[in-house]
Design a protein that fits this description.
By secondary structure, this protein is mainly beta. About 0% of the residues lie in helices and about 55% in strands. It is globular.
Length: about 120
């Protein structure tokens, strides 16, 4: 059974930083097609933020380029999202995602609130 457990969300002032972590159990990263982070703001659809594709290279959506960094520790099976220069528009629930053969998996979600 694959499980994704997130941690690291919270409340931060505009311009601040947070780091999200996603611990993956039940599979090694080498058996996962793609991994990434999505977010969903109230009343909005879930959207991709950053991911590692099957080429193992990081990909970012335009609104986080230069501010967010996706990384991973293959030995520990942990995916990270470093978020710098956070803005109120970044407020959302952030979800870790893993794409495996035949099924996708999601973390439980981690609330990130950017407010003064």
């Amino acid at each position: 059974q694959v499980q994704l457990v997130e941690s690291g969300g919270g409340l931060v002032q505009p311009g601040g930083s947070l780091r999200l972590s996603c611990a993956v159990s039940g599979r090694t990263f080498s058996s996962i097609y793609t991994m990434g982070w999505y977010r969903q703001a109230p009343g909005e659809q879930r959207e991709l933020v950053a991911s590692f594709g099957m080429d193992n290279r990081p990909h970012y959506v335009d609104f986080v380029k230069g501010r967010f960094t996706i990384s991973r520790d293959n030995a520990k099976n942990i995916l990270y999202l470093q978020m710098n220069n956070l803005k109120p528009d970044d407020t959302a629930i952030y979800y870790c995602h893993a794409e495996l053969p035949l099924k996708d998996y999601w973390g439980q979600g981690s609330q990130v609130t950017v407010s003064s």
